[in-house]
Design goal:
This protein has ten helices and ten strands. With 310 residues, it is of the alpha+beta class. It has a domain of 93 residues. A hairpin with a 6-residue loop joins strand 4 and strand 5. The two termini are 28 Å apart.
Length: 310
């Protein structure tokens, strides 16, 4: 994995740094939230030790189902792959916990519901899945010839001939809550810009297909769309270049300012409130582990902030 140079290391110099050179939505949102958070999670790769990831396994298994179903057109093969993933990474949640509804049985019911939706879509014949343009992780270099951005793609499709990236989401939120987050939204703007640059064709819109499960409802498939104009994407690109330049300044001075408004709910609050760097290091060693963030690797233990079941 390509990483950024370390021109200066005066802040917590004993910590190994491995900052990704390719900027995906996860790490950019960390930067926008707090530069110190970005330093700990992205530059150094710290994450809370022992964080539960049951909801990630559920979402990961569902994504495997959708991927294999599209490739094989075979429900049995897709279910087999889905359950193999679930058996490897998932487990039945304890009753009374936050995500106790994300069981193996609910996963199977979700796949069956998704298959009905997929079958009806195929019968309509309006959506064509494009192979070869973008599959999995994709990277482009922006107009400054330096900044590299990336994103993972579930599918790139054409709807009635018009280009349309598609993203599958497994969520416990309702439709109204999710619609509020479609725009502004870094992930969907990033995907649209990348597809535009790779294909030289402005996407008609992005399809966001929700799999909704909660304690009270589900499974349900809810399709949504969100669109970006050429002007919006050019402004987004300018913003990405600006943020990249801002981080270059952080590296040069090895200064990673805190955004105190974000501290109350941050995992690193216990670290940042320590009076000395030695005490900060002790807190990191006691409660955190290091793992380099790499968006190109499909990982069930992905960043909790990107958990789609949230």
């Amino acid at each position: 994995m390509e990483t950024m140079p370390v021109p200066r290391q005066t802040f917590m110099p004993e910590v190994k740094r491995k900052e990704p050179a390719i900027r995906d939505s996860t790490i950019v949102m960390k930067q926008k939230t707090c530069r110190r958070l970005y330093f700990f999670e992205v530059v150094c790769g710290f994450r809370l030790r022992g964080r539960a990831t049951a909801y990630l396994a559920f979402g990961g298994a569902y994504h495997v189902f959708r991927e294999v179903l599209e490739k094989t057109q075979d429900l049995t093969e897709a279910l087999k792959a889905c359950m193999a993933y679930w058996m490897k990474y998932g487990s039945e949640p304890a009753v009374g916990t936050k995500y106790d509804f994300l069981t193996g049985r609910r996963l199977m019911a979700s796949c069956e519901e998704a298959f009905k939706h997929w079958k009806a879509e195929k019968a309509q014949g309006k959506i064509e899945v494009i192979r070869g343009l973008v599959e999995g992780p994709a990277v482009v270099t922006l107009s400054d010839k330096k900044t590299k951005i990336g994103a993972r793609f579930d599918q790139v499709t054409r709807w009635d001939g018009r280009l349309m990236p598609r993203d599958f989401k497994s969520t416990s939120k309702n439709k109204k809550w999710f619609e509020r987050g479609l725009e502004p939204n870094d992930q969907f703007s990033r995907q649209s810009l990348i597809v535009w640059k790779l294909s030289s064709e402005l996407p008609f819109c992005t399809s966001v297909e929700l799999l909704v499960n909660s304690k009270k409802e589900g499974p349900a498939i809810i399709p949504l769309t969100t669109a970006r104009t050429e002007e919006q994407l050019l402004k987004f690109e300018e913003g990405e270049i600006y943020l990249s330049e801002e981080l270059a300044n952080c590296r040069e001075k090895d200064m990673w300012p805190m955004e105190e408004k974000q501290c109350n709910y941050c995992d690193f609050r216990v670290v940042c409130r320590a009076p000395t760097e030695r005490a900060m290091m002790a807190q990191l060693n006691a409660g955190f582990e290091q793992k380099t963030w790499d968006f190109t690797a499909a990982d069930v233990n992905a960043d909790p902030g990107e958990a789609e079941a949230e």
